[in-house]
Predict the structure.
Amino acid sequence: MAFLPHHRRLGGAAYPLGAPLGDYHGPVAEEGFDLESALQGAGLTAYRFTSNIAPSPTAASREGFLIEVDGSAEGYLEALRQLRPKSFKNYRRLGHGLERTFGPLRVAAVTDQRVFDTLLDWKRRQLSRTGAFDFLRPAWVNGMLQGLFQDSNPAFGGLLVGLYAGERLVAGHFGLRAADIYHPWIASTDPDLAEWAPGHIFLMHAIDAMPQLGLKTYDLGPGHEHYKRLYSLSSRPVTAGVRFAAGDAGTLQRATDQAWMLAGSEGPGMVGRLRRRLEVVSASQPTVLGRLNGFADTMVVAAQRTCSGNGTD
């Protein structure tokens, strides 16, 4: 009848398979499939999703941003320059400065384990600086990423793309490749080069290198709209939300969610940040101990931000 790839988490909630890395997901089913009854039959209370590829009238709509180059990469970049001349003039200036300081800029597919480890280290340092939950901590996440990195089959496997200035690694993306489609999961930059806006310089040069990498679609996924929209001329609609199981268990879970909403979980304030972080912990940590540690870290971060907001050391 249907197939729903998921992780079963605390309270019987289902999270998309690979969460929080799986950007696109949803049940594989015929149109009109009764998901609420299926969740009840499977002993689940709810299905939480962030980027469902099927329409959902009860969920919030968002965009998955795409870079689609089916002809000249230079033509695509020129179209971007025409749309956002001031931004691209500034990033070209920064790129020229990076070249003068460290050497010529180049983008390449990389299979060096040391580069892979460096990108993950940069990412974890970024998560620590910003107070975000370290979704790379769980052992299953590391195992999955390492396995994909070692399996670089162009038909379907991992792909690491790095930007170099001379011999110095500046930035990189790592994610899934399926033939000429690339969807990065991890975006990292050298924190010592932040003044050069290395993430923007990387994407400009990655677009230019798409033909030589054998890519036609660079799928940036949803989120971080202010950054991704600069480089995307097309997108796909996705939805984020929750579907509750039929029956008493689903009703109880719905009441819990409504209590969170009344407390402000949908807003930008502390309650909203806390709820979103707890969701990431629940989605990514498969063990009770892992969740408890993640929840404890979340409370520490929330307390630190509260103290900082009050002007307390």
In short: The chain has ten helices and twelve strands. Residues 288-309 form the longest helix (22 residues). The radius of gyration is 21 Å.
